[in-house]
Design brief:
Catalytic activity (chain A): a quinone + NADH + 5 H(+)(in) = a quinol + NAD(+) + 4 H(+)(out)
Strand order of the largest sheet of chain B: 1-2-5-4-3
GO molecular function (chain A): NAD binding; NADH dehydrogenase (quinone) (non-electrogenic) activity; quinone binding
Pfam family, one (chain A): Complex1_49kDa
Helix content of chain A: 40-55%
Number of helices of chain A: 18
Strand content of chain A: 15-25%
Largest sheet of chain A: 3 strands, mixed
CATH architecture of one domain in chain B: 2-Layer Sandwich
Structural class of chain B: alpha/beta
Distance between the termini of chain B: 39 Å
Oligomer: heterodimer
Number of helices of chain B: 4
Number of strands of chain B: 7
Distance between the termini of chain A: 36 Å
Membrane topology (chain A): Peripheral membrane protein
Strand content of chain B: 15-25%
Number of strands of chain A: 13
Keywords (chain A): Cell membrane, Membrane, NAD, Quinone, Translocase, Transport
Chain lengths: ~450, ~200
Amino acid sequence: MTAIHDGATAPGEQDFAEGTVYNVNGQDWDQVVEAVADSSEERLVINMGPQHPSTHGVLRLVLTLDGETVTEARTVIGYLHTGIEKNMEFRTWTQGVTFVTRMDYLSPIFNETAYCLAVEKLLGITDRVPARAQAIRVMMMELNRISSHLVAIATFGLELGATTPMLFGFREREMVLDLFEYITGLRMNMAYVRPGGVSVDLPAGAVDKIGEFLKVMPGRIKEMRKLLDENPAYTRRTKDVAYLDLTGCMALGITGPMLRATGLPWDLRKSQPYCGYETYDFDVPTETSCDVYGRYLVRVAEMEESLKIIGQALDRLAGSELKGKPVMIEDKKIGWPSQLALGPDGLGNSPDHIAHIMSSSMEALIHHFKLVTEGFRVPAGQAYAPVESPRGELGAHVVSDGGTRPYRVHFRDPSFTNLQAVPATCEGGMVADVIAAVASIDPVMGGVDR
Amino acid sequence: MRAAIEERYGARAEVSDSFGQLTVDVAPGDWTDLLTFARDGLGCVFFDWLTGVDEPPDGITVVAHLFDPARHAHLLARTRVPRDEPRLPTATGVFRGADWHERETFEMFGVIFEGHPHLVPLLLPDGFEGHPLRKDFVLAARVAKPWPGAKEPGESGAGSPSRRKTLPPGVPAGWGTSAATPPPVRGPRAPRQADPDG
């Protein structure tokens, strides 16, 4: 017997080769149960998603059930495929940033940084990116990690039936998004990190605003911990659920909080530092329970570590050594000539820069025109640069043929790889635990499908 | 690691360094053997990713990134399959996690991974024709449907007729809604039979 949860077809029963199809479209539940009760078969195939609130976007799961036990879990992906990798082959290297920031929409800064680090490797300018730009990148990445983990925990609470963590999580996330808006002009998809540095320096008052955030946030995380850490309703749904040990993670290529919940302190910020992470003082939180609860604990502890890093980065940015220093590489052939300025309606063109190129310097205008419309050339070759995103290893494999546009860009998105763990974590468990298992993977479908 | 690979494969493997990363090029016949050797002999137990790079006219390069978590060593393994007959033995027998990566490479480049347990398209809609990441696949969405946000004169076929018509990036000349030969039809056909194995 096969039941298909499908609102598009007419109510009633249909016979197919594999069994009977029962359509559930909002009729009385007793009717459905009655019809199913007559059947002698125990096997039930249920379609979940793609528009299910607990599927983090548009993930479709096909579950085969034997009673309450999941015997087979299959994922169907691709509903958010946008062809970003193909599109990037027809834009300049700098325009690529605008595309990659839209992949994993909960961690845009990480997408941008991974891509820019790979492009900088190809350009051979990794060491010449200004220290101030690197510190801003680190600070923005850690702010982004907090906002991303907050969504993970918030939606997770909602999916298990608790509204308060959701409200708390999104309220706190709003503080981070406000900071992003203040600094970059946009709350999401900022295209802020560019090859050679960042698009614009911190506006006046940003340091104070982030300082305030650092004062408020530890208390808010404690509130969240108080709500969930010892909550029996929460721990019963999460402890010993969706077990995946180190061997399983290694075989499937799982990274991020899922891997660190197996006890391995694997973090690219420590194992192969980039953007100067080796100079910051922070720990890599781990758990050994290999379950959903462990992954939650790792995420919360990581937010606390991120606050530590933000504090250190902020001290450097406000300190005399980096204050007022450039945020874009001082190389006329690569550094973006266009200056942006924060106006009353967000980030836009800088009036000073426009006045300069339009009325006082012909050379500056030619230079601006050439670099902005044609872009810079990148030497032929291939490079791979990974960063530790909130979900695990996010890497960009970039191939150049020496032109002004990428020849091929491939993204190793952690959500894509981690989602392969759905059968391993769900099969053999209860159907109710599928929700907890998928939520603990924290997939972002924009990153999975790209 | 470099010496071990050179010793085992000799002239059959081309070992190079690409921005600090060890890169090994082997023939398709040595592909599975290289991956197995990397896992068992070199300690690269972590499979990171696998993808393709289309290099017309003759070949498609398949790239895999492996990792040694104990020594923090990377290995970029590459092989080149002919473009008209792109066949490669699957890596799923060596690394279970290669499953989706190979399915993605299969649908985007048309590389057939022999022995893959379930080699069906992964991301694209049912019945999609063509391999989008191949260089000869035209990025034609803007031709099929004019962009509503067009600002340039001549874009979307509007504006003064004396203007040079600008085509969106990725579209070859001679295409477009007003072109003599209409673009070949690509995209979703009738949906296939539902596949419960997904």
